[in-house]
Amino acid sequence: MYLDIGNVLNTSPGITEQTLDRLDDRVAIAHDRIEEGREAEEHGYAALNLPQTVDTDEIRSALEPFGTPEAVLTVGIGGSALGAATISDALADQTDVEAHFLDNVDPEDTAALLDSLPLDETVLNVVSRSGTTAETLANFLVVREAMEDAGVDWTEQTFVTTGDEGNLRNLADKHDLPSLRVPDGVPGRFSALSTVGLACGALQGIDIEGVVEGARSEMDKLSGSLEDSPGYAYGAVAYALAERGALTNAMMPYAESLEYFAEWFAQLWAESLGKEGLGQTPARALGATDQHSQLQLYRAGPRDKLVTLVRPREREDIDIPETDLEGLSYLGGAGLGDLLDAEFEATEASLAAEDRPNIRIEVDAVDAHGIGELMYAMEAATVMYGELAGVSTFTQPAVEWGKKAARGLLGGGEFEEADAVADKREFTIE
Ligand SMILES: O=P(O)(O)OC[C@H]1O[C@H](O)[C@H](O)[C@@H](O)[C@@H]1O
């Protein structure tokens, strides 16, 4: 992965070369702490070891009973869905097996999806680290019933990834379902490179080994200097910019196949770093589409943003046909990819011309290696940012508060968080 931070130097907000030197000293200290955590397999830090601890053979053999299905339906939410979705989306060109994700509990959307799926040829991939998440278990029950109604033996077509305990583990044991464990010490949003994020791709026949290799090549770059580690450098610079007022980070890939990547990144960044009044709000954008909408704000709105532009250096191109239509002849002879690249560089320059900080991230291609590199580097960036900010990167008390309140409201136990719902202030206007 290549990182270019030239456009954060002396921008507004921005950092100077002297700041970078000072930051580098702090990166060295943070790196030592991270290494300590990795060595002891501490909660969270253990996730940065996944490229060397994940066993892709184990994943493939656990999935053997399913052969090659027509479709995979992953039921999970947050970290139990977004990593798999990012990998499947990026590598969709490697497979004919469709991947669908049921994370939300919108009844209309769920009904439409279930109507459209060949249920007898679909593997149901249920994923929950805790094994207790209401949305995931509710969706599982709905899909299971739909399979039963369609005369499909769901026990023959269901695969489970979960922890050693919890409702989902009990269910897998009861029905003797093929299953995998979520590795210890790996929080949901850092689990993309584990059983959690790779099983779906394996069912699709995607090159998950290549994803892990790509991640490993970024893992091997972790060092005590941001100059040697793109992941650490991204995290450290984003942190320094946030300290100087860049409180939003617009993640803007210029590739449709990386749209989910921006969504996955948003969970990683927000849930890990949004603590104690600190953090940087991830915004999702897609180039070139959002160049024609959000760029106005990024270039001329408040100076409170970092824009992160992501692209592959190579992609398959489609030629734009030659034309003698007046004013359009400049397009002929170029490719759609050339146009997308020109748009990318134009956005970068338009921000730089106004001294707006932006960072360029590139991979050679959106392939297995490239997506592995990107995902690992962003995880390392998040951990580095968290160390520098002094927050507890691997917890999510605010999200858990909401989970308990929702469960309490549905009668799933006594939770004081649910009582707080009754205190809602109202000021209704019709
Ligand atoms: O994997 P699960 O236990 O079902 O959790 C799914 C998601 O639930 C919560 O919202 C957590 O805050 C997320 O980090 C997690 O990814």
From TrEMBL:
Keywords: Cytoplasm, Gluconeogenesis, Glycolysis, Isomerase. One of its GO terms (molecular function) is monosaccharide binding. GO terms for biological process: gluconeogenesis; glucose 6-phosphate metabolic process; glycolytic process. It is found in: Cytoplasm. Pfam families: PGI. GO terms for cellular component: cytosol. The active site is at 271 (proton donor), 292, 403. The keyword Cytoplasm applies. Its EC number is 5.3.1.9. It comes from the Archaea. Pathway: Carbohydrate biosynthesis; gluconeogenesis; Carbohydrate degradation; glycolysis; D-glyceraldehyde 3-phosphate and glycerone phosphate from D-glucose: step 2/4. It catalyses: alpha-D-glucose 6-phosphate = beta-D-fructose 6-phosphate. Signal peptide: none annotated. HAMAP family: G6P_isomerase. Belongs to the GPI family. This is Probable glucose-6-phosphate isomerase. It comes from Halohasta litchfieldiae. The gene is pgi.
